[in-house]
Amino acid sequence: MLPATQSPSPIAELEALLAQRFAQRTLMLNDSRQAVREIGSGPAIVLLHGIGSGAGSWLEVALQLGRHARVVAWDAPGYGDSTPLRPLAPQAEDYAERLLKTLDALDIHDCVLVGHSLGAITAAAFARLHPQRLRRLVLISPAQGYGNPARAIQCQQVRGKRLAALDQLGIARMADQRSAAMLSAHPSAKALEWVRWNMSRLDTHGYRQAIELLCGDDLLRHAPPPVPCEVHCGEADGITTPEACLALARALGASFALIPDAGHASPIEQPHLVAGRLAFALKESLTGSAQ
Questions:
Q1: What is the pTM of this model?
Q2: Owning domain of residue 57
């Protein structure tokens, strides 16, 4: 008898889709490299990942959105093949400046900008600095940051905890231990492995810079957004909780909605729902609806 043919693992299938359908491009921006992934054509929607992730985390969302939009996801500076920023402790403005150069290089004049988790701080800063380049701002499980002086004690605790985990565990073990916290109580095996896969590809230097952004900035420093804004949060998000995201939405004057059956990494855990929300946001941006 011939041996049974083993079907590829879910992660192998996702890696193949990433390479074939949402492949990486490397842009040269003066003396910096900037890695992006792109699919589709039409109005642009630009996706910014969180602190423990990368452009690949948007794969299944992008495959759906790419049917009727130009979808671009970046690896933030210091992530993947993207050159880190120069300052050891960069500000949101530094990330926003790299994003502006990226959009210019891609000939994207306006877009719907989506920020997940820490990516929401960069997205909010970009909206404040370059409102003419955006049609709408979408924040998914936004991290507020700890830069407000009133959160100084939390800032010290978060910085110390994250740097200690990085130094003591390293990227690979950190990914093993933290992946489950990014999801709801009963995630699929595929979602758990894809969160781990993306987290395991972090770069130590880029991650340290991102910790400084998280601890040194406050999303509300960039409020109110000068363009229509909406906030979404996984109903089981234990990192940026629904209560915290609702408070942020109210402070921003933004609409708010929960994503069912999802934790913090909702683009991985519920890609169909997230893609649907973003497709609707894109449609609203083109029809000129306010909130």
A1: 0.96
A2: 10-287
